[in-house]
Write a structure and sequence with these properties.
By secondary structure, the protein is mostly helical. Helices cover 49% and strands 0% of the residues.
Length: 68
């Protein structure tokens, strides 16, 4: 299996964040929403997810494992 340093770093950050809240999902969610609100208040752009998901077009979509 391929070792990806970026994925490992993101997982370590996520683990540390969850540990700060004793793995309480409600507390983690509230912290993320608070952080999101603070960033919006500071003027960072917030993009809402699309209301309708685009239909997949597998002939055009690529992923990182496509060229193995």
């Amino acid at each position: 299996m391929m070792k990806d340093e970026i994925v490992d770093e993101v997982r370590a950050i996520r683990e540390a964040h969850a540990a700060r809240f004793n793995y309480n999902l409600r507390a983690i969610y509230e912290d993320l929403k608070k952080s999101e609100s603070e960033r919006i208040a500071d003027g960072h752009p917030f993009v809402s997810p699309p209301t309708v998901l685009p239909a997949p077009n597998s002939t055009l979509q690529r992923n990182r494992f496509a060229h193995r």
